[in-house]
Amino acid sequence: MKKTSILISIGQIESAFRQLAVLLMVFMSAFLFGCSVPGLGVRDSLLMSEELPQSFVMPYSADRIWEQVISHTKAVPNGRVLATSPTDRIISWCERVENWRDLGTDTARLEYRFTAGRALADFESRYRVTEFEYAELAANTGEGIAITTIWIEAMGRRSQLHIRRVTYGDKSFAGIGHSRGDYEKSLYLNILMATTRDQLP
Known about the structure:
This protein is of the alpha+beta class and 201 residues long. The protein has helices at residues 2-33, 46-49, 62-75, 117-127, 131-138, 182-199; strands at residues 54-58, 80-85, 90-96, 106-107, 145-155, 158-168.
């Protein structure tokens, strides 16, 4: 009798684990792919629509690239540094833009919590820069605000440049520009050429 009770208990535990596994699978499916059930997710999951930063391998050390990034940041018209960490080689700045529709960047509604890629999300949590600060920057401006974040990853004698750019406006809007990615590529080439010039005798 006691043996039967133990077997029943084990069976109940296994059944409970199976049910839990199924529930977890359903929850993760809803979280990753979106779900129309209220509270479980959204049709277009923020997690899945979130893209990684544009990343470029540079043939120079992280320190040299960091110097050029700092120089570029100082030269941005009406730019404002939000936060910077020389140790981690990460910097974020904002600038006012007139034609945000043609920027070729990600956009986000002010009423939604922004998702700006893993590097920027980590940057936000580490340095306590929130979407409310970004929303405040964009408030009452007709032009819009672009926030750019750069992280330089050391790779021995080389480095990897991660760039993420998000655009905010004073009105609700969504979508992406028709030239998405052009800004990141242009910035990468400018930094690469500036670093190369500095290496010339």
